[in-house]
Design brief:
Layout: E1 12-16, H1 19-22, E2 30-47, E3 58-78, H2 83-95, E4 100-109, E5 114-122, H3 135-144, E6 146-147, E7 150-151, H4 152-165, H5 171-184
Antiparallel strand pairs: 1-3, 2-3, 2-4, 4-5, 6-7
Helix pairs in contact: 3-5, 4-5
Length: 193
């Protein structure tokens, strides 16, 4: 799965749409805003390691297939000499118990280039695939979960901040964050006094 990661031009790219955007964790030569067509970012993956536990699962993002969908994120160019280490790191980080499958997909870069990037897409046949979780239920799950990498809500907060820093806005993620903040009491839900 990793040996054919290089594109026709020999370049190696990784597409990030969640925590890879704000914490890639691997050496890269470039980081460029990019769009992956045919997929949407969705809290559709159960996390029992990084953002939850088997007893209190969290939710993390996955790329869900959608005919007219598009996902804005970041694409990272990796030097060929760094690929073996990067591939091992990504396999441990992204494939450890999660409902992802690696795929090489065409990505449009903000500078007009098109590249083939290594992506992790949601695998609906995997037991950790959560599917579409109603927003209020997702907010409650995200609020209570914590894993090896920290609070599930920090994952949501950092992803929304990263999207905003790159000029991306996803109303459903902003609404989810708003609901989490309401549940924590950090944001008054407008109940009055």
């Amino acid at each position: 799965m990793w040996s054919d990661a290089a594109g026709a031009d020999g370049e190696l790219w990784v597409f990030g749409y969640g925590s890879l955007m704000w914490r890639p964790g691997f050496a890269h030569l470039e980081a460029i805003p990019a769009t992956l067509h045919g997929y949407a970012r969705s809290f559709c993956i159960w996390s029992e390691h990084h953002r939850g536990t088997p007893d209190c699962r969290g939710l993390v993002l996955g790329l869900a297939r959608g005919e007219d969908a598009a996902c804005e994120g970041m694409v990272f160019r990796v030097a060929p000499k760094d690929w073996p280490e990067t591939a091992a790191y990504l396999e441990e980080r992204e494939l450890r118990g999660y409902a992802y499958r690696p795929a090489h997909l065409p990505v449009a870069l903000s500078d007009g280039r098109r590249v083939t990037a290594h992506c992790f897409v949601a695998d609906p046949s995997h037991p950790h695939y959560a599917g579409r979780v109603p927003p209020d239920e997702a907010a409650r799950i995200i609020l209570r979960a914590r894993g090896e990498a920290g609070l599930n809500r920090d994952y949501l907060i950092n992803t929304v901040k990263s999207l905003e820093q790159h000029g991306y806005r996803e109303p459903h993620l902003h609404a989810l964050l708003r609901r989490v903040l309401e549940l924590t009491g950090e944001l008054d839900a407008g109940a009055g006094i």
